[in-house]
Structures are given as structure tokens and as C-alpha cells.
């Protein structure tokens, strides 16, 4: 994402959204169509980010800036508003992380109590579904795997199985939980793996699909231990 996209998305999204209450935009000219295309793309990015904005207020601010008008809020007021919004988001993220950690911890404890489950010192737990009889990857090897990933509430956040296409990557390029289990697996093996947040994406999460403090559940099948 370039700097222009970072600076302008809120206003462009709001300007596009505010058309719902008025006339449809005239998209006959190349400039208008280009403007709409940029606004649509940026609006989608903001929608995925989960940012909550007042479209009317943002549209007014964009128009004032484009027309060279004085802002309705001074710099101090705008800075305070930005800081308040940031603090609100941090508080919400902290609460979400606590809730996710509690749910994930309960799931992990139940999983660990199951037959045949092994646990690393860092809390990564796994159960061997199929042992496999091939080689094991060494650190830094490139592997080819199929996987299916869910949160503890059953939401699928990523799945090469569903896409029908295995993935290839170096073992040292993935989350810590995967780095722990992959060298223990053998080609042809399939494991169920539960990874606590500190060995996954931590307090930040990863986009809208994986929240802060999320415990992750994977089914991993090692197809090839050294795919180079």
C-alpha cells in the first residue's frame, strides 16, 4: 500500500458512501471514473480494516481541505480526537485479547488432556493423526504442506485444503509454533496442532481473521520435507 492510499482512504470512502443520500455521481468523464475507481478500492481497504468513521464528518473535512477552507477543528482538537480514538481501539483490543486468551486456554487444556497428545515447553500441543515414514525437514529447509487453520470457535481463517493447492515455504519463515512442530514431522505425516497466542500472532493478531490473543488450531500434512 502506498503513501497516498494510507493518507486518503477515510475521506474517499466517506465521499463515496455519502452519495447514497443524494444524486448518483456522473461517471461519464475519464477523471470521474478514475476517481470512483480509486475511491472504491480504498473504501474496500478501510472496510477490511474495521475502522469506524462518521462519513458525513469525513466528507466535510475532505471538501474543506480541497477547497482551501479553514478546518472546523484546530490542530490541538484534531490531535486529541486522534489520540482518543487510538486509546479506545487499544482498550477494545486489550479486552478482546483477554477474552480470546481465556477461550483459547480452556480449549488448549482440554486438548492436552486427550489421548496421545504431546506438549512442548512453550505450550504448543499436537496429536499425530498419521505418523508418516519419510524424511524430516531440517531448520531452514523448504517444505511443501497442506494445512487447515481454525480458531477455537471453529472459524476457518486459512486453508490450503479448501483452496486445493498445497503451499511451499522455508520452515524459518512461519510462526514459531510451526517452526517447532515441522522438524518433528516426517513426510507423509499429518498432525493436529494447537498453538497458543505467544507462539502464533500474539497480542496483535493478523488482520480481521485472527484476533489478538488468539489460540490457533491447525491440521498440518507434510507432503515434502525438502522441496528445493
From TrEMBL:
<feature type="coiled-coil region">
    <location>
        <begin position="75"/>
        <end position="102"/>
    </location>
</feature>
<feature type="domain" description="PPIase FKBP-type">
    <location>
        <begin position="140"/>
        <end position="226"/>
    </location>
</feature>
<protein>
    <recommendedName>
        <fullName>Peptidyl-prolyl cis-trans isomerase</fullName>
        <ecNumber>5.2.1.8</ecNumber>
    </recommendedName>
</protein>
<keyword id="KW-0175">Coiled coil</keyword>
<dbReference type="Pfam" id="PF01346">
    <property type="entry name" value="FKBP_N"/>
</dbReference>
<keyword id="KW-0413">Isomerase</keyword>
<dbReference type="InterPro" id="IPR036944">
    <property type="entry name" value="PPIase_FKBP_N_sf"/>
</dbReference>
<dbReference type="InterPro" id="IPR001179">
    <property type="entry name" value="PPIase_FKBP_dom"/>
</dbReference>
<dbReference type="InterPro" id="IPR000774">
    <property type="entry name" value="PPIase_FKBP_N"/>
</dbReference>
<dbReference type="GO" id="GO:0006457">
    <property type="term" value="P:protein folding"/>
</dbReference>
<dbReference type="Pfam" id="PF00254">
    <property type="entry name" value="FKBP_C"/>
</dbReference>
<comment type="similarity">
    <text>Belongs to the FKBP-type PPIase family.</text>
</comment>
<dbReference type="GO" id="GO:0003755">
    <property type="term" value="F:peptidyl-prolyl cis-trans isomerase activity"/>
</dbReference>
<dbReference type="InterPro" id="IPR046357">
    <property type="entry name" value="PPIase_dom_sf"/>
</dbReference>
<keyword id="KW-0697">Rotamase</keyword>
Amino acid at each position: 500500500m502506498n503513501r497516498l492510499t494510507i493518507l486518503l482512504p477515510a475521506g474517499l470512502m466517506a465521499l463515496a458512501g455519502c452519495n447514497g443520500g443524494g444524486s448518483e455521481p456522473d461517471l461519464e468523464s475519464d477523471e470521474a471514473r478514475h476517481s470512483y475507481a480509486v475511491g472504491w478500492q480504498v473504501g474496500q481497504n478501510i472496510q477490511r480494516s474495521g475502522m469506524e468513521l462518521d462519513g458525513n464528518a469525513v466528507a466535510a473535512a475532505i471538501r474543506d481541505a480541497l477547497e482551501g477552507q479553514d478546518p472546523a477543528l484546530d490542530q490541538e482538537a484534531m490531535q486529541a480526537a486522534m489520540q482518543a480514538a487510538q486509546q479506545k481501539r487499544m482498550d477494545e483490543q486489550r479486552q478482546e485479547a483477554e477474552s480470546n486468551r481465556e477461550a483459547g486456554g480452556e480449549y488448549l487444556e482440554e486438548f492436552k488432556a486427550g489421548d496421545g497428545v504431546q506438549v512442548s515447553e512453550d505450550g504448543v500441543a499436537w496429536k499425530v493423526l498419521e505418523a508418516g515414514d519419510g524424511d524430516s525437514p531440517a531448520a531452514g529447509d523448504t517444505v511443501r504442506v497442506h494445512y487447515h487453520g481454525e480458531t477455537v470457535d471453529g472459524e476457518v481463517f486459512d486453508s490450503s485444503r479448501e483452496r486445493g493447492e498445497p503451499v511451499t515455504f522455508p520452515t524459518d519463515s512461519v510462526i514459531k509454533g510451526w517452526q517447532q512442530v515441522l522438524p518433528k514431522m516426517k513426510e507423509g505425516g499429518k498432525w493436529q496442532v494447537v498453538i497458543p497466542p505467544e507462539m502464533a500472532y500474539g497480542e496483535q493478531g493478523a488482520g480481521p481473521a485472527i484476533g489478538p490473543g488468539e489460540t490457533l488450531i491447525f491440521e498440518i500434512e507434510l507432503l515434502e520435507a525438502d522441496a528445493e
